[in-house]
């Protein structure tokens, strides 16, 4: 291999170029990608039916508005109680379309659709839903600070957008 002479500018440039091309590329994720990774981790924890793993994605003071709860769940204990029934249930979550809005380097809002599937009488029951999550980076860690989930109504046959029926609640 012919190593360029460092005595000439062209030789220095060639050496720097060769070193740069041989270094592995490092992907640097921004706030949007990092926040969405937490949502994907949340979905995987839900689908593994592990309430404790789900709760680890929330800030200790997080606020959660769940599909089927008549109350606002605030804090770790309340959120854990809400998700306690998924343990061993076979419940699954699949995230579909989503939109990400980076507010700043430490706050991201993600909104979109997801689908819950639960077993009822040994039959899979789908519950299309929508979500909005506010994720906050605090002490270097992204966590969910606010999560709103609600059923996504399906239009009744021949009905407009204001005449929707509610799907199964989760």
Give the helix/strand layout.
Layout: H1 9-22, H2 31-47, H3 51-55, E1 58-65, E2 73-74, H4 76-83, E3 92-104, E4 107-120, E5 123-138, E6 141-151, E7 154-155, E8 164-165
Parallel strand pairs: 1-6
Antiparallel strand pairs: 1-2, 3-4, 4-5, 5-6, 7-8
The biggest sheet amounts to:
6 strands, mixed
Q: Averaged pLDDT, please? A: 84
Poorly predicted residue ranges: 22-26, 161-169
Shape: globular
User: What percentage of residues falls in helices of 4 or more residues?
Assistant: 25-40%
Give the class from helix and strand content and strand pairing: alpha+beta
Architecture, according to CATH?
Roll
Description:
Strand 3 and strand 4 form a beta hairpin. This protein has a single domain, classed as Roll (Nuclear Transport Factor 2, Chain: A), CATH 3.10.450.50. A six-stranded mixed β-sheet has the order 2-1-6-5-4-3. The longest helix is centred in the N-terminal third of the chain and has 17 residues, at 31-47. The protein is 26% helix and 40% strand. The protein is an alpha+beta fold and 170 residues long. The radius of gyration is 23 Å and the shape is globular.
Defining key terms:
single chain; 4 helices; two-stranded antiparallel sheet; disordered C terminus; 26% helix; alpha+beta
Quick summary:
The chain is of the alpha+beta class and 170 residues long. Helices cover 26% and strands 40% of the residues.
């Amino acid at each position: 291999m012919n190593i360029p002479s460092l005595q000439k500018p062209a030789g220095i440039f060639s050496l720097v170029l060769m070193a740069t091309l041989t270094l592995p590329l490092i992907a640097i994720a921004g706030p949007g990608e990092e926040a969405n990774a937490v949502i994907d981790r949340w979905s995987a924890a839900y689908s593994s039916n592990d309430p404790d793993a789900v709760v680890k994605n929330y800030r200790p003071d997080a606020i959660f508005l769940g599909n089927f709860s008549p109350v606002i769940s605030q804090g770790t204990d309340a959120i854990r109680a809400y998700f306690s029934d998924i343990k061993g249930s076979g419940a699954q979550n699949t995230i579909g379309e989503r939109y990400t809005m980076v507010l700043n380097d430490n706050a991201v809002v993600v909104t979109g659709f997801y689908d819950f599937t639960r077993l009822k009488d040994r039959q899979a029951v789908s519950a299309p839903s929508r979500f909005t999550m506010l994720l906050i980076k605090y002490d270097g860690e992204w966590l969910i600070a606010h999560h709103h989930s609600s059923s996504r109504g399906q239009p009744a046959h021949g009905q407009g957008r204001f005449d929707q029926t509610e799907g199964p609640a989760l």
